[in-house]
Amino acid sequence: MVTRVFALTDVGRVREHNEDMFLVADLESGTPLDFTDGAHEITADPHGLLFLVADGMGGAASGELASGMAGSLVLEALRQTWTSANPSPTGFAEALRDATVLANARIHQHARENPEHRGMGTTATIAGLLGDHLFLVQVGDSRAYMVRDGAVEQLTKDQSLMQRLVEAGELTAEEAEVSSRRNIILQALGPEAQITIDLTYQRVCRGDTLILCSDGLSGLVRAPEIARTSGDEPDVRSICQRLVDRANQLGGVDNITVITARFEGEALRASSSGDALGYTTFALAGTMHDEAGAPAPLSPEARSTFKSDPTPAFGTPVAPRAVLDQEIEHARTAGDHARLGAPELVVQERRQAVQPVFAVLGVIGLLAVLWFLSELFG
Length: 378
Hints:
Number of domains: 2
CATH class of the largest domain: Alpha Beta
Largest sheet: 7 strands, antiparallel
Mean pLDDT: 82
Shape: elongated
Structural class: alpha+beta
Protein backbone atom coordinates (compact mmCIF):
# COMPACT_ATOMS: atom_id res chain seq x y z
CA MET A 1 0.00 0.00 0.00
CA VAL A 2 1.37 3.38 -1.06
CA THR A 3 0.10 6.84 -0.10
CA ARG A 4 1.01 9.86 -2.20
CA VAL A 5 0.35 13.05 -0.26
CA PHE A 6 0.79 16.80 -0.53
CA ALA A 7 -0.47 19.71 1.59
CA LEU A 8 -0.76 23.43 0.96
CA THR A 9 -1.99 26.47 2.87
CA ASP A 10 -2.58 30.01 1.59
CA VAL A 11 -3.55 33.25 3.31
CA GLY A 12 -6.17 34.05 0.64
CA ARG A 13 -6.90 37.47 -0.80
CA VAL A 14 -8.59 39.22 2.12
CA ARG A 15 -6.98 38.18 5.41
CA GLU A 16 -3.65 39.57 6.58
CA HIS A 17 -2.72 36.53 8.66
CA ASN A 18 -3.02 32.80 8.12
CA GLU A 19 -4.73 31.13 11.10
CA ASP A 20 -4.99 27.76 9.31
CA MET A 21 -2.50 24.96 9.68
CA PHE A 22 -2.00 21.43 8.40
CA LEU A 23 -0.03 18.48 9.65
CA VAL A 24 0.82 15.17 8.00
CA ALA A 25 2.91 12.66 9.92
CA ASP A 26 4.16 9.11 9.58
CA LEU A 27 3.26 7.66 12.99
CA GLU A 28 6.00 5.06 12.85
CA SER A 29 8.59 7.82 13.24
CA GLY A 30 6.23 10.46 14.69
CA THR A 31 7.80 13.15 12.49
CA PRO A 32 5.74 15.73 10.57
CA LEU A 33 6.34 15.75 6.82
CA ASP A 34 7.81 18.80 5.08
CA PHE A 35 6.33 19.61 1.67
CA THR A 36 8.77 22.35 0.68
CA ASP A 37 10.37 20.13 -1.94
CA GLY A 38 7.19 18.47 -3.18
CA ALA A 39 4.89 15.53 -2.48
CA HIS A 40 5.74 12.46 -0.42
CA GLU A 41 5.24 8.80 -1.28
CA ILE A 42 4.84 6.67 1.84
CA THR A 43 4.71 2.90 2.11
CA ALA A 44 2.29 1.67 4.76
CA ASP A 45 3.79 0.97 8.16
CA PRO A 46 2.40 -0.73 11.31
CA HIS A 47 1.40 2.50 13.07
CA GLY A 48 -0.23 4.36 10.19
CA LEU A 49 -0.48 7.96 9.05
CA LEU A 50 -1.96 11.14 10.51
CA PHE A 51 -3.59 13.96 8.50
CA LEU A 52 -4.87 17.10 10.24
CA VAL A 53 -6.35 20.44 9.15
CA ALA A 54 -7.12 23.14 11.73
CA ASP A 55 -8.70 26.57 11.30
CA GLY A 56 -7.92 28.89 14.21
CA MET A 57 -10.14 31.67 15.55
CA GLY A 58 -10.03 34.41 18.13
CA GLY A 59 -7.80 36.95 16.38
CA ALA A 60 -4.57 36.49 14.45
CA ALA A 61 -2.25 35.75 17.37
CA SER A 62 -4.78 33.57 19.19
CA GLY A 63 -6.03 31.77 16.10
CA GLU A 64 -2.57 30.91 14.84
CA LEU A 65 -1.60 29.72 18.30
CA ALA A 66 -4.73 27.57 18.74
CA SER A 67 -4.43 25.81 15.38
CA GLY A 68 -0.70 25.27 15.85
CA MET A 69 -1.27 23.84 19.32
CA ALA A 70 -3.93 21.49 17.96
CA GLY A 71 -1.50 19.90 15.53
CA SER A 72 1.46 19.65 17.89
CA LEU A 73 -0.60 18.40 20.85
CA VAL A 74 -2.43 15.70 18.89
CA LEU A 75 0.82 14.43 17.40
CA GLU A 76 2.64 14.53 20.75
CA ALA A 77 -0.14 12.57 22.45
CA LEU A 78 -0.01 9.92 19.72
CA ARG A 79 3.76 9.73 20.00
CA GLN A 80 3.47 8.98 23.72
CA THR A 81 0.64 6.46 23.55
CA TRP A 82 -0.02 5.02 20.13
CA THR A 83 3.53 4.34 18.95
CA SER A 84 4.15 2.18 22.01
CA ALA A 85 0.84 0.35 21.75
CA ASN A 86 -0.07 -2.87 19.99
CA PRO A 87 -1.64 -1.66 16.71
CA SER A 88 -5.32 -2.50 16.21
CA PRO A 89 -8.10 -0.53 14.47
CA THR A 90 -10.14 0.00 17.66
CA GLY A 91 -7.04 0.91 19.63
CA PHE A 92 -6.16 3.43 16.92
CA ALA A 93 -9.62 5.02 17.13
CA GLU A 94 -9.28 5.27 20.90
CA ALA A 95 -5.85 6.87 20.59
CA LEU A 96 -7.19 9.50 18.16
CA ARG A 97 -10.10 10.25 20.50
CA ASP A 98 -7.87 10.61 23.54
CA ALA A 99 -5.33 12.78 21.71
CA THR A 100 -8.08 15.17 20.57
CA VAL A 101 -9.64 15.41 24.03
CA LEU A 102 -6.24 16.14 25.56
CA ALA A 103 -5.50 18.81 22.95
CA ASN A 104 -8.79 20.52 23.79
CA ALA A 105 -7.96 20.46 27.50
CA ARG A 106 -4.52 21.98 26.97
CA ILE A 107 -5.74 24.74 24.62
CA HIS A 108 -8.56 25.59 27.04
CA GLN A 109 -6.12 25.66 29.94
CA HIS A 110 -3.77 27.98 28.05
CA ALA A 111 -6.59 30.42 27.26
CA ARG A 112 -7.66 30.57 30.90
CA GLU A 113 -4.16 31.18 32.16
CA ASN A 114 -3.32 33.81 29.52
CA PRO A 115 -5.96 36.59 29.31
CA GLU A 116 -4.60 37.89 26.00
CA HIS A 117 -5.78 34.62 24.41
CA ARG A 118 -9.21 34.44 26.03
CA GLY A 119 -11.81 32.80 23.80
CA MET A 120 -9.32 31.33 21.35
CA GLY A 121 -10.20 28.11 19.60
CA THR A 122 -9.73 26.05 16.47
CA THR A 123 -11.57 23.58 14.32
CA ALA A 124 -9.89 20.22 13.77
CA THR A 125 -10.52 17.59 11.13
CA ILE A 126 -8.23 14.69 11.86
CA ALA A 127 -7.85 11.56 9.73
CA GLY A 128 -5.88 8.54 10.87
CA LEU A 129 -5.04 5.77 8.39
CA LEU A 130 -4.14 2.27 9.61
CA GLY A 131 -3.97 -0.24 6.78
CA ASP A 132 -7.19 0.31 4.85
CA HIS A 133 -9.00 1.63 7.96
CA LEU A 134 -9.53 5.40 7.89
CA PHE A 135 -10.85 7.01 11.09
CA LEU A 136 -11.98 10.63 11.14
CA VAL A 137 -12.28 12.89 14.18
CA GLN A 138 -14.39 16.00 13.61
CA VAL A 139 -14.55 19.16 15.74
CA GLY A 140 -15.98 22.22 13.96
CA ASP A 141 -16.56 22.78 10.24
CA SER A 142 -13.38 21.94 8.37
CA ARG A 143 -14.10 18.97 6.11
CA ALA A 144 -12.94 15.63 4.73
CA TYR A 145 -14.02 14.39 1.29
CA MET A 146 -13.33 11.11 -0.48
CA VAL A 147 -13.20 10.96 -4.28
CA ARG A 148 -13.79 7.48 -5.72
CA ASP A 149 -14.33 6.59 -9.39
CA GLY A 150 -15.19 10.19 -10.23
CA ALA A 151 -17.76 10.58 -7.44
CA VAL A 152 -17.23 12.57 -4.25
CA GLU A 153 -18.74 12.18 -0.79
CA GLN A 154 -18.25 14.22 2.36
CA LEU A 155 -16.93 11.95 5.10
CA THR A 156 -17.44 14.45 7.93
CA LYS A 157 -20.46 16.41 9.07
CA ASP A 158 -20.17 20.12 9.88
CA GLN A 159 -20.78 20.92 13.54
CA SER A 160 -22.55 24.16 12.70
CA LEU A 161 -25.81 26.01 13.12
CA MET A 162 -26.54 25.67 9.40
CA GLN A 163 -26.03 21.88 9.47
CA ARG A 164 -28.41 21.64 12.42
CA LEU A 165 -31.05 23.66 10.57
CA VAL A 166 -30.67 21.56 7.42
CA GLU A 167 -31.11 18.36 9.43
CA ALA A 168 -34.19 19.84 11.11
CA GLY A 169 -35.70 20.62 7.72
CA GLU A 170 -35.67 24.36 8.41
CA LEU A 171 -33.30 25.18 5.54
CA THR A 172 -32.17 23.55 2.33
CA ALA A 173 -28.49 22.82 1.81
CA GLU A 174 -28.43 25.52 -0.89
CA GLU A 175 -29.85 28.15 1.49
CA ALA A 176 -27.35 27.15 4.17
CA GLU A 177 -24.42 27.62 1.79
CA VAL A 178 -25.23 31.31 1.25
CA SER A 179 -26.41 32.20 4.75
CA SER A 180 -24.61 34.98 6.60
CA ARG A 181 -24.67 32.70 9.67
CA ARG A 182 -22.78 29.81 8.13
CA ASN A 183 -19.71 30.55 10.27
CA ILE A 184 -21.52 29.81 13.56
CA ILE A 185 -20.17 26.47 14.75
CA LEU A 186 -21.28 24.09 17.45
CA GLN A 187 -17.94 23.40 19.05
CA ALA A 188 -14.20 23.84 18.63
CA LEU A 189 -11.03 22.90 20.45
CA GLY A 190 -10.40 25.35 23.29
CA PRO A 191 -13.46 27.45 24.15
CA GLU A 192 -15.07 24.81 26.41
CA ALA A 193 -13.48 22.59 29.04
CA GLN A 194 -14.91 19.44 27.47
CA ILE A 195 -15.81 18.38 23.95
CA THR A 196 -17.62 15.38 22.51
CA ILE A 197 -15.98 14.45 19.24
CA ASP A 198 -17.68 13.07 16.16
CA LEU A 199 -15.90 9.87 15.16
CA THR A 200 -16.52 8.29 11.75
CA TYR A 201 -14.98 5.54 9.66
CA GLN A 202 -14.27 4.73 6.01
CA ARG A 203 -12.80 1.66 4.34
CA VAL A 204 -10.22 2.77 1.75
CA CYS A 205 -10.10 1.28 -1.76
CA ARG A 206 -7.42 1.33 -4.44
CA GLY A 207 -7.40 4.68 -6.25
CA ASP A 208 -9.29 6.62 -3.57
CA THR A 209 -8.33 10.26 -3.01
CA LEU A 210 -8.77 11.82 0.42
CA ILE A 211 -9.10 15.61 0.63
CA LEU A 212 -9.06 17.50 3.95
CA CYS A 213 -9.67 21.22 3.83
CA SER A 214 -10.62 24.30 5.82
CA ASP A 215 -13.82 26.21 5.04
CA GLY A 216 -11.74 28.71 3.09
CA LEU A 217 -11.85 26.07 0.35
CA SER A 218 -15.15 24.23 0.96
CA GLY A 219 -17.04 27.51 1.39
CA LEU A 220 -16.18 28.54 -2.17
CA VAL A 221 -15.36 25.41 -4.18
CA ARG A 222 -18.23 22.92 -4.26
CA ALA A 223 -17.76 19.16 -3.96
CA PRO A 224 -18.40 18.34 -7.66
CA GLU A 225 -15.62 20.70 -8.70
CA ILE A 226 -13.30 19.13 -6.13
CA ALA A 227 -14.08 15.73 -7.68
CA ARG A 228 -13.43 16.99 -11.22
CA THR A 229 -10.12 18.52 -10.20
CA SER A 230 -9.06 15.29 -8.53
CA GLY A 231 -10.02 13.30 -11.62
CA ASP A 232 -8.21 15.65 -14.00
CA GLU A 233 -4.92 15.66 -12.12
CA PRO A 234 -2.82 12.53 -11.49
CA ASP A 235 -0.44 14.51 -9.28
CA VAL A 236 -1.51 15.32 -5.70
CA ARG A 237 0.53 18.51 -5.66
CA SER A 238 -1.27 19.79 -8.74
CA ILE A 239 -4.65 18.98 -7.15
CA CYS A 240 -3.82 21.08 -4.09
CA GLN A 241 -2.52 23.99 -6.15
CA ARG A 242 -5.50 24.03 -8.50
CA LEU A 243 -7.99 23.96 -5.62
CA VAL A 244 -6.25 26.80 -3.79
CA ASP A 245 -6.04 28.82 -7.00
CA ARG A 246 -9.73 28.25 -7.66
CA ALA A 247 -10.72 29.41 -4.16
CA ASN A 248 -8.67 32.57 -4.70
CA GLN A 249 -10.32 33.11 -8.09
CA LEU A 250 -13.69 32.98 -6.33
CA GLY A 251 -12.65 35.69 -3.88
CA GLY A 252 -10.20 34.10 -1.44
CA VAL A 253 -12.19 35.56 1.46
CA ASP A 254 -10.59 33.28 4.06
CA ASN A 255 -7.41 31.32 4.62
CA ILE A 256 -7.30 28.23 2.39
CA THR A 257 -5.79 24.91 3.42
CA VAL A 258 -5.94 21.52 1.69
CA ILE A 259 -4.35 18.09 2.10
CA THR A 260 -4.63 15.60 -0.75
CA ALA A 261 -3.73 11.92 -0.27
CA ARG A 262 -4.12 9.25 -2.96
CA PHE A 263 -4.04 5.57 -1.99
CA GLU A 264 -2.65 2.89 -4.28
CA GLY A 265 -1.19 -0.61 -4.08
CA GLU A 266 -2.16 -4.26 -4.32
CA ALA A 267 -2.79 -4.40 -0.58
CA LEU A 268 -5.97 -2.38 -1.18
CA ARG A 269 -9.03 -3.95 -2.72
CA ALA A 270 -10.60 -2.52 -5.85
CA SER A 271 -13.79 -0.51 -5.39
CA SER A 272 -17.17 -1.95 -6.36
CA SER A 273 -20.64 -0.49 -6.85
CA GLY A 274 -21.85 -1.89 -3.53
CA ASP A 275 -19.19 -0.19 -1.39
CA ALA A 276 -20.33 2.26 1.26
CA LEU A 277 -18.91 5.74 0.85
CA GLY A 278 -19.76 8.75 2.99
CA TYR A 279 -20.51 9.73 6.56
CA THR A 280 -20.42 6.50 8.60
CA THR A 281 -20.46 6.70 12.39
CA PHE A 282 -18.15 4.66 14.58
CA ALA A 283 -19.51 3.88 18.03
CA LEU A 284 -16.90 4.45 20.71
CA ALA A 285 -17.18 5.50 24.36
CA GLY A 286 -16.85 9.24 24.86
CA THR A 287 -17.91 10.20 21.32
CA MET A 288 -21.17 11.51 19.88
CA HIS A 289 -22.17 7.98 18.95
CA ASP A 290 -21.59 6.50 22.38
CA GLU A 291 -24.96 5.25 23.66
CA ALA A 292 -24.23 6.75 27.06
CA GLY A 293 -23.68 10.13 25.42
CA ALA A 294 -21.05 11.18 27.99
CA PRO A 295 -17.91 13.15 27.12
CA ALA A 296 -14.66 11.23 27.09
CA PRO A 297 -13.01 11.25 30.53
CA LEU A 298 -10.04 13.53 30.98
CA SER A 299 -6.78 12.30 32.37
CA PRO A 300 -6.08 13.25 36.03
CA GLU A 301 -3.21 15.44 34.80
CA ALA A 302 -5.40 17.41 32.42
CA ARG A 303 -8.27 17.71 34.92
CA SER A 304 -6.04 19.01 37.71
CA THR A 305 -4.88 21.99 35.63
CA PHE A 306 -8.32 23.61 35.30
CA LYS A 307 -9.16 26.72 37.30
CA SER A 308 -12.62 27.48 38.65
CA ASP A 309 -13.30 30.65 36.65
CA PRO A 310 -15.03 30.14 33.29
CA THR A 311 -13.52 31.13 29.98
CA PRO A 312 -15.10 34.40 28.78
CA ALA A 313 -17.63 33.81 26.00
CA PHE A 314 -16.25 36.29 23.48
CA GLY A 315 -13.55 36.53 20.86
CA THR A 316 -14.70 33.45 18.92
CA PRO A 317 -17.69 32.57 16.72
CA VAL A 318 -18.27 29.31 18.59
CA ALA A 319 -21.84 29.23 19.88
CA PRO A 320 -22.51 27.86 23.39
CA ARG A 321 -25.30 25.26 23.47
CA ALA A 322 -27.88 27.62 25.00
CA VAL A 323 -27.16 30.34 22.45
CA LEU A 324 -27.27 27.79 19.64
CA ASP A 325 -30.70 26.55 20.75
CA GLN A 326 -31.98 30.14 20.80
CA GLU A 327 -30.60 30.73 17.30
CA ILE A 328 -32.36 27.61 16.01
CA GLU A 329 -35.66 28.68 17.60
CA HIS A 330 -35.34 32.18 16.14
CA ALA A 331 -34.56 30.75 12.71
CA ARG A 332 -37.87 28.89 12.80
CA THR A 333 -39.76 32.19 12.72
CA ALA A 334 -40.85 33.67 9.42
CA GLY A 335 -38.63 36.72 9.81
CA ASP A 336 -35.40 34.80 10.23
CA HIS A 337 -36.28 32.41 7.43
CA ALA A 338 -36.93 35.36 5.16
CA ARG A 339 -33.48 36.71 5.94
CA LEU A 340 -32.03 33.26 5.27
CA GLY A 341 -33.52 33.25 1.79
CA ALA A 342 -36.86 31.41 1.88
CA PRO A 343 -39.15 33.62 -0.30
CA GLU A 344 -42.35 31.73 0.51
CA LEU A 345 -41.88 32.68 4.15
CA VAL A 346 -41.55 36.35 3.24
CA VAL A 347 -45.19 36.17 2.14
CA GLN A 348 -46.08 34.40 5.38
CA GLU A 349 -44.31 37.11 7.40
CA ARG A 350 -46.19 39.86 5.56
CA ARG A 351 -49.49 38.10 6.13
CA GLN A 352 -48.75 37.88 9.83
CA ALA A 353 -47.83 41.57 9.90
CA VAL A 354 -51.22 42.69 8.47
CA GLN A 355 -53.36 40.34 10.56
CA PRO A 356 -53.92 42.96 13.34
CA VAL A 357 -55.11 45.48 10.72
CA PHE A 358 -57.64 43.00 9.35
CA ALA A 359 -58.88 42.31 12.89
CA VAL A 360 -59.53 46.03 13.53
CA LEU A 361 -61.32 46.41 10.20
CA GLY A 362 -63.47 43.40 11.04
CA VAL A 363 -64.58 44.92 14.35
CA ILE A 364 -65.41 48.25 12.65
CA GLY A 365 -67.42 46.41 10.01
CA LEU A 366 -69.38 44.49 12.63
CA LEU A 367 -70.22 47.69 14.52
CA ALA A 368 -71.37 49.30 11.29
CA VAL A 369 -73.70 46.39 10.54
CA LEU A 370 -75.17 46.53 14.05
CA TRP A 371 -75.75 50.29 13.76
CA PHE A 372 -77.44 49.86 10.39
CA LEU A 373 -79.75 47.16 11.73
CA SER A 374 -80.65 49.26 14.78
CA GLU A 375 -81.57 52.21 12.53
CA LEU A 376 -83.55 49.99 10.19
CA PHE A 377 -85.65 48.21 12.83
CA GLY A 378 -85.48 50.83 15.55
